[in-house]
Write a structure and sequence with these properties.
Blueprint: E1 3-9, H1 23-41, H2 44-49, E2 52-63, E3 72-82, E4 86-94, E5 100-112, E6 117-119, H3 123-131
Antiparallel strand pairs: 1-3, 2-5, 3-4, 4-5, 5-6
């Protein structure tokens, strides 16, 4: 299973009025993981040259525990599924003690930039995922 990992720390600007990390921060952290995943498999720049754009079409997040200022989490994202025109990435954010903070799923399609329509997941991506 190919995966990527990043560590995050809750900064003062990540905290909402209730004193916990805002839901939108998790979206940003998941995007950081997704971009790292793509960078390590099929860089976006290479796809753009071919007129293709990996595009996020769905995000599901299950919030399991709140984070507060200065707390740290470890992010792990992996490829869960490759379909004909989509691929699914799953992720977990955990505290240093291993306790679960967030479970998430991102569904992505590869768009033909000019047509604005999904295309089959390119063979170069499938090959990169198989090697991972």
């Amino acid at each position: 299973m190919f995966s990527v990992e990043l560590d995050f720390r809750a900064a003062s600007y990540d905290i909402d009025f209730a004193g916990v990390v805002s839901n939108q921060v998790y979206l940003r952290w998941l995007e950081d993981l997704r971009l790292l995943f793509l960078e390590r498999t099929t860089p976006i720049e290479q796809l753009f040259v071919q007129g293709l754009a990996p595009t996020l079409v769905r995000t599901e997040i299950d919030y399991r525990a709140p984070l507060r200022l200065a707390e740290r989490v470890h992010g792990l994202m992996w490829l869960a599924k490759v379909g004909s025109t989509s691929f699914t990435l799953e992720a977990r954010l955990t505290r240093p003690d291993g306790s679960l903070v967030v479970e998430a799923r991102n569904v992505c399609v590869v768009l033909d930039i000019k047509a604005g329509r999904p295309v089959p997941v390119p063979e170069q991506m499938r090959a990169a995922y198989a090697l991972g």
